Amino acid sequence: MAELTGPRVYSCCNCRNHVSLHDDIVSKAFQWGRHGRAFLFSHAMNVGVGPKEDRHLTTGLHTVADIHCADCHLLLGWKYERAYEASQKYKEGKFILEKSKIVKENW
User: Fold this and answer.
1) Is the pTM of this model over 0.70?
2) What is the C-alpha separation between 69 and 55, in angstroms, rounded?
3) With contact defined as beta carbons under 8 Å apart, do 100 and 34 qualify?
């Protein structure tokens, strides 16, 4: 697995596999992941991407794919593949990582 370098790294809470950098956070304002609060990231690493599916989320219909840790396979969140509403297009290609599934490293 690739190890990310930087002052602040987020890792899988189960196996400590590095999954993103703090600097890649786009928003911390997501309150309704599957397990509570979630962060929107511009990039994620060391994750597997599941099949695409349409889901009705709080902000409307989106095509998303679940993402899991590439090492231990813990479900971490999802990737926005497509947003159907113009105001949500900024999410396309970005990743939701649930706060309860990641831990801070090098803080």
Assistant:
1) yes
2) 21
3) no
| Per-residue tokens: 36 | 């509570």
| Pair of tokens at residue 57 | 């989320």
| Long-range CB contact pairs, 56-60, < 8 A, 24+ | 57/32, 58/32, 59/85, 59/87, 59/88, 60/84, 60/85, 60/88
Q: What distance in Å separates the CA atoms of residue 17 and residue 2, rounded to the nearest whole number?
A: 8
Spans of the chain below 50 pLDDT = none
Q: Are 28 and 39 in contact (CB under 8 A)?
A: yes
Task: Please compute Rg for the chain using Cα positions.
Answer: 13
